[in-house]
């Protein structure tokens, strides 16, 4: 990713600020033991200074600034102005810790002369035009052969940094064709690529993922990955969940239940109403697959209570579900199923 420009001043010489964001902070808390070697390293003193101590402080400051920069990038900023760093001591109950706080205001700025005027009178960012062209070339090149091995780290960084919506089909295609790889490196690179859905607009990301999830042509493994991405980046939309629950495809409809079990960071009043409707719809959609009846014993007038599958053939029910119900019921009731052919 491009490095965020940081400055302690409130302006950038030679730059024009076009958008301000709310101030953000980043905190790094460390124990006093990180400076333990300072006391022992007397030989490290030169002229009253400790290079070891200074290196550790610089490392902590750098960590705080990097955290602040990462948060600024997520907001779409490319600069931080008014940067301030404070260090405080936290003591209590026999412990001593230090807290480094970085504070700044994220802004979107451009160098003077970078924006070019068009004949229409509107202005356009020259760098944005170049980035859009590079993005189009990348998409056209890799959509035909979405192998993760052919996409460099620089390109992954470009996707995560620019966050263009048009990258979504490419990211989904790469995921679909590489999610089942057994290589550890491929899995780690895919996890980085999944972050794309965490940095673009959440409503847009949610809509794209739920649309993909409802495709009847995708595999169950790929569908599982999509569910994990949605849950991991808090993109659950209960209107979409309800829509999935009403899908004619049983396998797709069952996916909705995983989202109901997952937690969201925040719930709205609308969510509560939708969850109630989802509960009612699920109860109607997934009815029991067995029913109890009685059967006369051979050479006897007495009857035994038995159960049978309510489906007349295997095409109407999942074989795995039927077998699971049979196993549980027979273990608890010790009854013999009527549809023995379902046991295979």
UniProtKB/TrEMBL annotation:
InterPro entries: UPF0145_dom_sf, UPF0145_YbjQ-like. It comes from the Bacteria. Pfam families: YbjQ_1. Belongs to the UPF0145 family. This is UPF0145 protein SAMN05661044_01091.
């Amino acid at each position: 990713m491009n490095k965020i420009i940081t400055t302690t001043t409130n302006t950038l010489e030679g730059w024009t600020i076009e958008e301000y964001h709310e101030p953000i902070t980043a905190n790094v808390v460390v124990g006093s033991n990180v400076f333990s070697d300072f006391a022992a390293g007397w030989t490290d003193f030169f002229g009253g200074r400790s290079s070891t101590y200074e290196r550790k402080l610089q490392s902590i400051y750098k960590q705080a600034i990097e955290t602040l920069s990462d948060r600024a990038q997520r907001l779409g900023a490319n600069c931080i102005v008014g940067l301030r760093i404070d260090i405080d001591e936290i003591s209590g109950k026999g412990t001593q810790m230090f807290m480094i706080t970085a504070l700044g205001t994220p802004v979107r700025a451009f160098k003077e002369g970078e924006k070019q005027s068009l004949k229409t009178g509107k202005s356009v960012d020259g760098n944005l035009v170049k980035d859009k062209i590079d993005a189009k070339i990348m998409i056209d090149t890799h959509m035909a052969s979405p192998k993760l091995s052919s996409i460099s780290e620089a390109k992954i960084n470009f996707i995560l940094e620019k966050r263009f919506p048009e990258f979504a089909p490419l990211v989904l295609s790469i995921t679909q064709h590489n999610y089942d790889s057994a290589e550890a490196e491929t899995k780690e690179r895919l996890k980085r690529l999944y972050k794309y859905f965490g940095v673009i607009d959440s409503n847009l990301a949610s809509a794209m993922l739920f649309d993909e999830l409802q495709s009847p042509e995708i595999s169950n493994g790929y569908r599982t990955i999509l569910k994990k991405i949605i849950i991991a980046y808090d993109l659950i939309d209960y209107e979409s969940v309800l829509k999935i629950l009403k899908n004619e495809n049983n396998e797709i409809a069952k996916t909705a239940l995983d989202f109901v079990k997952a937690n969201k960071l925040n719930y709205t009043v609308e969510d509560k109403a939708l969850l109630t409707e989802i509960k009612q719809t699920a109860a109607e959609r997934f009815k029991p697959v067995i029913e109890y009846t009685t059967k006369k014993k051979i050479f006897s007038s007495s009857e035994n209570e038995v159960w049978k599958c309510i489906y007349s053939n295997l095409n109407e029910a999942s074989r795995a579900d039927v077998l699971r119900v049979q196993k549980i019921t027979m273990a608890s009731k010790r009854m013999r199923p009527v549809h023995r052919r379902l046991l295979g």
